[in-house]
Write a sequence for this structure.
């Protein structure tokens, strides 16, 4: 019997498997598809954007360099001083100018190797994660479609093909049509689609008829992407297209002509798929010993490219909590905070997606809103607001403190000896950073053994803090002033490991 069975060997399932493997848990990953590679996962169809928050997650587990290499990124992120992002994305087809991002309004941002997002592919992400999972002892079985889930007492039985697997916990990371979600009885609530979207790799007889990038039209929107014939189309048909069959060349050509207002001709269709803007979410991410992460817990349109990043955030949040629960050293109720912390984040992304669809609708009211939104996004405040929403820099969990750093993703503090916080987090433990030179807070964490890592010494820039306590997922749970009180710091550490009220920040 395994500690955890994860269903789905996509980026979310593999990242979670790595987190659990790093903590010493026995993990089995079941994947329906028999082969890891497909045209939909490689460039250009599998191209995805990783936000700065997701890139930082890879960095904090020592996987950034392999990811950059697999992604073909020659220019390594990082700077000595905070710099504008290289890309700020778009909102409803309106590009955002990265030069308009106000760095002063990005809270507690310090320079580091993971300050920016990157473009990659699903293949590259999964290659890096699968290799890491293998090194950590994770077992991956492909061609194993799950057909039954049964919870009995302290175990979960999962049937795939002719075999049954038992585990203490089951996590469904098996996508928007999750079998685990359905078989385990999760609800799935939200809004029905207003559009059908198409992604395709095609040959065009006259590609010059289509404008580059995003083009909003009176009938919808089309997008010419990274390479010749790489197209996206949004058709506001109420999601009427029958998605049980792949789009034909004739159908896609007719939709593209109607949406673009041109007589463009597709002479060949190599790959094509469809999607909708259906936005759904489970009311809880846990039922007994079964949990959900990624698209299994929430789906939305791919507008803004936040789906992959949202799922990685789920895996990072869940991994250390489930591992602590398996070890038996988790505070009571810790695993339930996975839903309470991540569900609101998912709900906000769904609303962000819905807002973009509302702005893009081809009707007079939406076109009027489009004009207002474009004007707002052209301002420094508007661009910064949108960037904070999509980059992960605005993420903050409610941990019972009014201190602005508590609940926030920790800045990448760098000690004067060159060690960064990201380096200290690579073994999956929490970190207590004491910026005093005498290590006077060491005793506050010593009796918690190897569950928390202690590091002391002056920082290149301590942002005015004397010490910070950081969870394994990089979230700050306590922050103190330049002369932190040993008692309050120790109380915060103890509450983190033994339960009770969330630790509250010291004065600054």
């Amino acid at each position: 019997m395994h500690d955890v069975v994860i269903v789905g060997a996509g980026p979310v399932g593999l990242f979670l498997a790595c987190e659990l493997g790093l903590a010493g848990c026995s993990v089995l990953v079941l994947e329906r598809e028999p082969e890891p590679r497909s045209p939909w996962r490689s460039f250009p169809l599998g191209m995805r954007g990783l936000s700065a928050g997701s890139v930082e997650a890879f960095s904090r587990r020592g996987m950034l360099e392999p990811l950059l290499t697999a992604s073909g990124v020659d220019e390594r992120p990082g700077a000595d001083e905070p710099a504008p992002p290289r890309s700020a994305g778009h909102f409803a087809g309106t590009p955002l100018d990265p030069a308009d991002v106000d760095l002063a309004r990005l809270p507690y941002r310090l320079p580091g190797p993971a300050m920016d997002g990157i473009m990659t592919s699903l293949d590259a992400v999964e290659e890096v994660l699968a290799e890491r999972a293998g090194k950590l002892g994770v077992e991956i079985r492909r061609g194993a479609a799950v057909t039954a889930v049964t919870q009995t007492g302290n175990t979960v039985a999962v049937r795939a093909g002719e075999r049954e697997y038992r585990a203490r916990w089951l996590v469904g990371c098996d996508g928007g049509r999750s079998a685990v979600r359905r078989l385990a009885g999760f609800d799935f609530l939200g809004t029905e689609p207003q559009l059908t979207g198409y992604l395709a790799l095609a040959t065009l007889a006259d590609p010059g008829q289509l404008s580059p990038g995003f083009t909003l039209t009176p009938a919808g929107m089309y997008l010419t992407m990274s390479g010749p014939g790489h197209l996206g189309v949004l058709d506001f048909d109420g999601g009427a297209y029958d998605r049980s069959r792949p789009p034909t060349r004739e159908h896609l050509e007719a939709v593209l002509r109607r949406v673009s207002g041109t007589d463009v001709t597709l002479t060949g269709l190599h790959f094509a798929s469809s999607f909708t803007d259906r936005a759904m979410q489970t009311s809880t991410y846990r039922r007994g010993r079964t949990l959900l992460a990624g698209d299994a817990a929430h789906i939305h349109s791919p507008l803004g490219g936040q789906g992959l990043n949202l799922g990685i955030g789920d895996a990072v949040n869940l991994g250390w909590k489930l591992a602590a629960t398996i070890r038996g050293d988790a505070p009571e109720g810790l695993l339930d905070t996975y839903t309470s912390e991540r569900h609101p984040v998912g709900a906000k992304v769904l609303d962000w997606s819905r807002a973009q669809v509302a702005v893009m609708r081809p009707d007079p009211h939406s076109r009027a809103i489009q004009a207002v939104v474009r004007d707002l996004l052209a301002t420094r405040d508007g661009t910064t607001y949108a960037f904070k929403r999509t980059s992960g820099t605005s993420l903050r969990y409610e941990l019972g403190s009014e201190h602005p750093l508590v609940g926030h993703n920790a800045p990448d503090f760098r000690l004067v000896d060159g060690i960064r916080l990201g380096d200290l987090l690579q073994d999956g433990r929490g970190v207590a950073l004491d910026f005093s030179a005498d290590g006077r807070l060491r005793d506050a964490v010593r009796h918690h053994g190897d569950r928390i890592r202690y590091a002391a010494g002056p920082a290149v820039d301590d942002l005015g803090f004397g010490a910070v306590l950081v969870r394994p997922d990089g979230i700050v749970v306590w922050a103190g002033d330049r002369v932190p009180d040993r008692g309050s710091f120790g109380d915060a550490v103890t509450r983190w490991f033994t339960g009770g009220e969330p630790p509250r920040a010291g004065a600054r």
In short: The chain has a mean pLDDT of 90. The chain has 13 helices and 24 strands. The two ends are 49 Å apart (CA to CA). The first strand starts at residue 2 and ends at 7.
